[in-house]
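User: Second chain of the day. Same drill as before.
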Amino acid sequence: MADLRLVVAGMVHDHLWGMLPSFRKLPVKIVGGADPNRPLREKLRKEYGVTSLYADYHDLFAKVKADAVMVCGTNADGAGIVEAAAARGLDCMVEKPMAATADQAKRMLRAARRHGTRLMINWPTAWNPPLMKAMELVKRGDIGQCFHARIHMAHQGPKEAGCTPYFYGWLYDARKNGGGAIIDYCCYGAAIMSALWGRPNQVMGVAKTLVKRNFSVDDNAMITAIYDKRLVLAQASWTQNPDYHDSLFLGDQGTLQTEHGQLVRTHTNPKDYSHWGAERLNRKVVAVPPRPRGLRNGPEHFVHCLRTGKPFTKLCSAEVGCLAQEILSAGVKSNRTGRRVRL
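Assistant: Same format as last time:
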């Protein structure tokens, strides 16, 4: 089977440069790229030997024969790129989140369906073994009824975390990003709740600039999704020190929590209460097997599914990505109006 011919549309999402080495290990040939920034095009040429480079992705799609597209522009650019790619029959992998707004995400989903192309949203959390095991156990009912979940994503901020100016330059632009931390870091929780429980009934959002002075967007945010039998909190911070990227699932028969690369399950026995002491918590580190081939990272999964015809994992499906974007947009609207938003 011939190598998959891949082009890169947009290079201002820094996650791109962490994924390209993974593509290099696969039967993939990177045959072209497009971005308005000449230094980024030069970086792709110098590091990956790509010579068909353009400032505009329309020129890229018109002049370079390809099979698939890695989309790494601004959140707001994604809809136009996917629509243009789908019209030429190109499958797309979009780096998280799906878009800047719910309307843009819906455009992307419609374009893929109209032209019969594949569309995957790459969430780095999808390749996190403890989190994926936790979601599996929650879905299986291991902790009974999961009535609350909290997905807490935080660091000191994109610039402080080492992102390039090409990346944080648009993350700090509400139109290009869709907001601030509320979009960039609440998106993980929105995707996880969408994959596990679908569409919530209502959404409440709060986004504020609490620490960073003269900052154009929010640096801390929370989105609460209200379901019939659970509340789910997506929590984001661009000011937390040290960083934190973990999740908590509360069930009526136990608790699951990811803790720095581990998954921990706790529960009390009948008629025991946790405030009686730690010895009654039945704390257990859950064995988490390595992710199988095809599910170890985004590029590997994308190529595997294109070659085998298998569906993308649910978390990375365009449908879940679109619903996550609806939740994010509802959170932004709720913050603006001070009211719950019904979906």
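The radius of gyration is 20 Å.

User: Great, on to the next one.
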